[in-house]
Amino acid sequence: MAKVTGLEGVVAGETDIGLVDGEKGYLVYRGYWAKELAVSKSYEEVAYLLWYGHLPNESELAKLKREMAEAREMPEYLCQMIDLLPASVPLMLVLQNAVAALGEKGSATWPPSLQQGIRLTAVLPTIIAYRYRRLKGLEPVKPDITLGHAANYLYMLSGNAPEEAHVKALSAYLILCMEHGMNASTFAARVVLSTESDICAAIGGAIGAMKGPLHGGAPFEVISMLEEIGTVDRAEAWIRNVLDNKGKIMGFGHRIYKTKDPRAEALKIATQEMIGKDPSFDVAIEVEHIAIALLEEYKPGRRLFTNVEFYAAAILRALELDPEVFTPTFTSGRIVGWTAHLMEQAAINRIFRPQSVYTGPMPETEA
Q: Which residue among 77, 113, 340, 353 sits deepest, i.e. has the most Cβ atoms within 10 Å of its Cβ?
């Protein structure tokens, strides 16, 4: 029997939600190019698409916006619980604990409902912003029901009304975070739910998977690289030095995509059109060109292109978000895909029970 580790190449199910084709560079959300949705639609519109299977009309969108705005408020017991957690507890573990605590009796049911998924999606940014501001010694900012999802998140983090360009850039980023096939966290969520556990337990499992640096690795390493390079005239020498020493150029190459990452393409457009010209962004553009050429020179045929983290770094840097909230912010986008997958799993549920190959010793005597 051929040895397969990490379920590489194994089909674990069928889905109508999203398509990831690494060879062709495709990312599709229910029949739409994700990169086009990211620069033309709002967070709520794309969330509706993933949850309901079609883009909303005016009344459907208004209803979803109202539902999400009303679900942003954190219950008092959750605020108290978060305040009792030591400052040393990482924010992703705070999210995991908070989501588990939201599974109080009556909401932890089987099968899960989409309303439960909408509630978790709406409240997650509030949890992130609440914890973040507490750690910084700042008073938490209550959600503003008059703002859209992305705008409200920026408002709760900073306490200031966000610029429209920043809202659009963050919305594009969150949309491109929403769905990416049967990735580790989505698979983890579906496995937990397949036992007929509840949605909060399943999302908690997904957050646990997202916390790992091999999956939810934040783009702050790209930011550190760009800051170290500093100026365009330093880029080639800096990159050659890293490659000569067998180092890794952050923000390039992807396990799935063997051509340009479509998410990176969309974020590049979002950054250029919505953030505008910025000296640090100009450096990023030039670093991209130089790095791709040098990677082909040093590693011919490997097809190492810019990945989503490179331009995510540009956007998050322009938005002046603290690196501490990078992975939680990614999570607040991906929860839409998780909850869509959980609804799909519940509809056709069968418990996941893969086999393993035993490689240990056998007893010396016959059974």
A: 340
Asked if residue 140 belongs to a domain, the reply is: yes
What average pLDDT does this structure show over 271-296? 79
Provide the CATH number for the domain around residue 38.
1.10.580.10
pLDDT, one tens digit per residue, over 243-252 is 999 998 988 8
Catalytic positions are: 254, 309
Nearest residue to 38 via CA among 252, 274, 206: 274
CATH number of the domain bearing residue 241: 1.10.230.10
Domain count for the chain:
2
Say if 251 falls within a structural domain. yes
| pLDDT tens, position by position, 177-221 | 999 999 999 999 999 999 999 999 999 999 999 998 878 766 778
